[in-house]
Amino acid sequence: MEKYFITVLIILALTLWAWAIVDIVRTRFNRPVKKVLLLLVVTIFPIAGSIVYFQLKANFTDRKLRRFKPDFMHTN
After folding, report:
1. CA–CA distances in Å: residue 10 to residues 36, 41, 52, 71
2. Which of 3, 29, 33, 72 has a 20 to 30 Å separation from 41 between CA atoms?
3. Alpha-carbon torsion 24, 19, 51, 55, what sign?
């Protein structure tokens, strides 16, 4: 039973870590340096870094809404 519990914890930790890395890469930050720093922190401290990132994400990100601007409707 203990092996299953440890396995589940490892899977959850890896999922949180991967989710944080993907979210950092896809998110628009106020300054690009913050993205690199957060990637380093999450890479070096996978669990604690991921938790801290998700708790403080709103302070680091650009809050402007993105608008859909398709470029495929050009008329020549």
Report:
1. 25, 19, 18, 43
2. 3
3. positive
Chunked in runs of 10, what are the mean pLDDT values of the chain (76 residues)? 93 95 90 91 94 89 70 64
The encoded tokens of residue 27 equal 């998110």
In the chain, domain spans: 2-60
For residue 42, what are its two tokens? 């999450």
Whole-number pLDDT of residue 60? 79
The token pair at 30 is 């106020």
Q: Token digits for 2?
A: 């203990």
At a CB cut-off of 8 Å and minimum separation 6, what does 24 contact? Answer: 35, 38, 39, 42, 53
Would you state the structure tokens that stand for residue 46, as one six-digit string? 């996978």
